[in-house]
Amino acid sequence: MMRRTKPDQPDTHRTQQVVDHIRSLIENGTLQPGDKIPPEREFARALKISRASLRTGIGYLAAMGVMKVKHGVGTFVADGPAEFGKASLSLMGALHGFQSWQMFEARMILESQVAALAAERGKEEHHAAMSEEVAEMFAAMDAPADYLIHDVLFHRIIAQASGNPILAALSETITSALYDKRRKTVERSTDLRESAEMHREIYRAIRAHKPAEARRLMEEHLRMAKEAQVMERSAERRPAAPVRSRAGRAELRANLT
Amino acid sequence: MMRRTKPDQPDTHRTQQVVDHIRSLIENGTLQPGDKIPPEREFARALKISRASLRTGIGYLAAMGVMKVKHGVGTFVADGPAEFGKASLSLMGALHGFQSWQMFEARMILESQVAALAAERGKEEHHAAMSEEVAEMFAAMDAPADYLIHDVLFHRIIAQASGNPILAALSETITSALYDKRRKTVERSTDLRESAEMHREIYRAIRAHKPAEARRLMEEHLRMAKEAQVMERSAERRPAAPVRSRAGRAELRANLT
DNA sequence: CGTTTCTAAGTGGTCTGACCTTTGACGGGC
DNA sequence: GCCCGTCAAAGGTCAGACCACTTAGAAACG
Asked: For residue B15, which nucleotide's C1' is closest to its Cα?
């Protein structure tokens, strides 16, 4: 019964093969954040696969934020703060009907807890960095765009100070989505002084290792930030996409063996 | 000075073009979860791009969990619960040195808050579904694998009952990563009765609309679950990958215009 | 007639190899 | 010494052929 053309290897799919290979390179330390991988043609030859397949695998990793591709320069291992796919949130928003208040709610829950952890575990280096950003915020109160940058930086440092990179990555995912939206309306903001002062208070609570207070202040801060942003885009388009009804019982079973 | 062969369009990169096109199809309701997109050859011709480029774009969307491709069948819009790239967490774990306790900590923070929200907002349909899963857990106490499935389902329903799909997606991301790990050790578990009873208590707190109690019980449950899992894989490999030191000041500035 | 098996069409996966576009660096001209 | 043209390197796109997996319907069998 003439056997198939099944030479030998189980020959897992190429994409998977590439991802696994690079994963192992990262795990054993051969590749570190910021490193450059070999040119596609060369790397493909080394892995004994076509350049097209290699590209598929790299594309997959790039989509998840694990790698960064620069046209005409090379492909690198991501080195910024961990994050779960920038486009991800907005894409999934379109797909699952995410609402603005839900983003704020999620952010509030995450960041307030993160602030509490930062108050428990923050080290001197973090306090110094936070202090610096607060100072920069006060200095940039009349330059909304600059202010925003230091605002984001401040929150990023807190996330780092929490000592939990996973929570930091989750926060980063939501914050960066919000940041993109914010950048468009920030020029209209007012009361940056009050905002800066709240940041200073949060900073003090964290430096003084007061978790409960840090959490409370962060919640208050985000609550006000939300209202401010809603106000900033008062006169704006309201497409109001039709929100499809929620999942049925059946689809909950997805991915369970 | 002879201009380039620049016919007309700004000609954004192909991948982006594909992603944007599909995004718009989703946003205007032409594509809904579960729908199938046209065959690659046909779709590529319609978009006036090569099949290879189309595939790159689809690959990007698939990597982020927005689409699902099935060899020999077709490509579909994802329909399961929202999630941020399954492989994502484990890949990023390798890259940023995620630790097990950090996953549990993140899960505890997210799920306890989610449980509180579910207690506030849960509807009858959710209570019914939760009740059913609890019953199934009691019925599967001597079949760890089955038990695990209903366990995951139970938590998934709570996430859905929270009324915040973003938080649900974040929980799902972490839970599914933990689920993969757990599946390997679950056969060794004991005390499933106690676990089932805790689930029942959580269910009761949510049904009774007691947020604070639901949060407390969920925290307690996850704390025990963590200890149980640590115990399950007592005699196991401990590679202890070298955790690279944390980010420097510079890389914090990433992605800020 | 019902069941099993085979076959072919449809669709995603991979390969090859050529050509285009973007960067960055080197080096000559002013 | 500065500016700009040129070129090599590396990623991006294309075209077309062929491979591999699924499914459904046809054909053979009981």
From this structure: D12
